[in-house]
Amino acid sequence: MSNPSIGRLELICGPMFSGKTTELIRRLEAAQFMQSVTLSFKPTFDTRYADQELVTHGGQRIRAVAAKNAADIVRNSGDAKVVGIDEAHFFGSELSSACSTLVAAGVRVIVVGLEFDHRGDVFEPFPSLLMRSDEIIRLVGVCTVCGGEAIHSQRMIPNTQRIAVGGIGDYEPRCGECFKPSRL
Ligand SMILES: [Zn+2]
Hints:
Layout: E1 8-13, H1 20-33, E2 38-43, E3 53-55, E4 61-63, E5 65-67, H2 70-75, E6 82-85, H3 94-104, E7 108-113, H4 125-132, E8 135-138, E9 141-142, E10 149-150, E11 152-155, E12 171-174
Parallel strand pairs: 1-7, 1-8, 2-5, 2-6, 6-7
Antiparallel strand pairs: 3-4, 9-10, 11-12
Bound molecules: zinc ion (ZN).
Residues 143, 145-146, 148, 174-175, 177-178 line the site of zinc ion.
């Protein structure tokens, strides 16, 4: 990071269990070490494991503010110089302009989320976020069928909702060949 006062958008995407939240926490902790004021957000309905914290599947955790929507993130960012946003796919297309507002205000924004839903369709904020990003990290998981590079999240439980919060057992990382798009 050359100059922490210059706004910047960093995007970390990949399937379930590819280490996205771990990478977000690593970046936030590094920023805190450099005395930057950091703040993390996550969607309110993500109540896995703990409220008001980002928690990795491995048990790492960092404090987070629950946000109802993208506007909530902008409203509650205060004087944070580094803003982390976990589970970005839940915030929908409005997230892209919210990130632009923060970047224009000199904030370093680190966005983490799934690019693809259980059907293999792209989640709305990502095409636009990809175009606006200063840095893009695409993490891959290990395909649970063939051991190849997983870019998809295979839903293992029946659920008709596009957005369903899942933990271990609910989703599996799959490569493009082993992924079977959910028809629900
Ligand atoms: Zn595979």
